[in-house]
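Two proteins were folded this term; both appear here.
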Amino acid sequence: MIYIEFHANGTPIMNKALREMVPPRIRRKLGKKSQLCLLNGRDVFAPLRSEMQIVMACNTRIKQVIPGIMQAAEELDAVVAFELTRSEGGLDGGYTGQTPEIFFDAVIDYAERAKFSKPFIIHGDHITVKDTSPGELAEAEKLLSAQIKAGFTSFAIDASFNPLQDNIKIVNRLARHALAEGLGLEVELGEIKPVGSDSNLTSVAETEEFLQGLAACGVNPLLLAINNGSKSGNYIDGEKINIDLVRTEEIYRVSRSFGVAGLVQHGITGTPLHIVGKLADFGIRKGNIGTLWQNIAHAGLPLDLMEEMRRWARENKRDIKYATKVFKAEIDAIPAENARMIHEMAYREAREFITAFRAKGSAGRLAGLLEGAGCA
């Protein structure tokens, strides 16, 4: 049986049995004294597949948003994910200056200090492979290996830039690394476009062909990211948000027949909460939020630092996100008052999204589902 203790405010404290689901390699990395519940993506998304809720996945490019997100998840008893893409946090630190090891250490440091008790995953998002060249594949394999060594517990292999058959071949080759460790696997079909560009929606037919091809190779992903009309980044003034929910549901139905637990929604920054709240009904089980947390961090950074970052972006004709790595030392050393401001803003936004995602109580539901399946 799973016995659940409760905080004074009535929310559950994560139980010992669920903490026993922490993979042995993660237990060794965290140390014997750690009470953190860092789980494999497989052990989160597989049990929750039939729950009409979305796990909030946070691309925390600037680390000071992390404790606010954790506070909201703790109070709302929610499962949450922390992630970085290859461009955000690759082997060279990407444009955030965070290598896999640096990112893992930042998340764990905040979780330990906060005594965070809820289940969470650390996810390698958008491990992008743009072609089938040996060099491109070798770099992706190096990143996967580094993320596994660092302590990541879930991965998204994104070969969506390639023709469908090449996408299958790339995923088949790279997925072995994650599947051999029993980790969570997400794949992508249909390139997610940035704001200001046209979308090419993923079709039902190509979804079936893609998943059939992977299944023939013995690869059965838990999550599928698609292009359903959403965009990445901050929406341009006047640009309409067009998420095709009918197409999303059609793809979800096909995907379920191949064992997929759910779909992944990109481009949530700027999407109204009343739309976000409907996504679970159409098969979305993981919702990626990235630019929002960057916007929050920027709003709380010292004004003189933000002005320096904006000047750098103007002079170098780059998106301001690329200033994150350049000014990482200054960002990491901001005054406590600014860090508190970022924490509070991230906390408020995280509460809103967890609630809209219907993820309140998801940690307790996960514990119950694992118990019912005889997994704990």
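Next, the second protein.
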Amino acid sequence: MFAITGITGKVGGEVARNLLAANQPVRAVVRDLSKGEAWAQLGCDLVRADINDAGALTSAFKGAESVFVLVPPNFDPSPDFQEARATAATLRSALAAARPGRVVYLSTIGAQATQSNLLTQHTIIEQVLGELSMPITFLRPGWFMENCSWDVASATNDGVILSFLQPIDKPVPMVATADIGRVAAELLQETWKGHRVVELEGPHRVTPNEIATTFADLLGRPVRMEPVPRETGVAIQIAEHEEPIPRIKMLDGFNEGWIEFESAEAGSRKGKVALEAVLQTLIDRDEKSSSFPEKRTCDHCSIRTGTILRRRAVMGVDVSPGPRRVLASPCQHLAVVENPT
């Protein structure tokens, strides 16, 4: 039996689908049983457990050949990362009591970084789980290609994408969730001893400029990338997050190069899914959702959601000079507008 947490999400779902395709028995670990019904219909054993409930997790993991651990993201952690420390302690207790045969923990690129940032949450959990004697693989994927979902509307309607990743010609290790799920399922079925790290990225590294070019090819219209000045990016993060510093430092880490694979590009495992395939899926999904008019307009400012970047920002912050600028509307949407001449 393979116990899968996070199965109702993109990555956990991909893991489960790959295991089922290999005719492996799957135990779906969910917080809400009603949300797991679709997996029960596919033949999965359904159990309820919250990531912070050691007793329920112990029951969910007990008797499992392998366990896939995915913790819910926390984009506003406390400065001391107390939430991650609590989750780590709970997971350690549950795994120690359940004693599954193997564990694959979904970590992140840069988990070995010594500078504190948003990804430090995974550093903490890796360190605590590393105290266990059972076989554990820490799977560290790169930047998710699916993060480009935030860019579909602006690319489609405005031909401009704002980039917090810079320089915009700097290659970034990115990977598709389909590759993460496939590789995680493969790892769960392997046999190994002790602890190991597997670092995963896509077929090749991707620059922000390549994202814009790929959108342009798929949409049949010009699309360009505009870098967000750091001081503007900081202002946006402060307006958007209760605890903005970890996220600001994470972006600094990617841009300055200290968030990188421990084994660098040469030592990472390469996925199969190209950026083009991921962006096409995101575009198709956006086109389906656009058939609902109520989702296309901001209630407060009546701006089409095609020109809203789904981020809150400080009123009147210029993101870039030139004929176009980005301003926050009174409703705190960030909208691309024309500069007055």
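Residues 293-341 form one domain. The CA atoms of residues 137 and 196 lie 5 Å apart. These notes refer to the second protein only.
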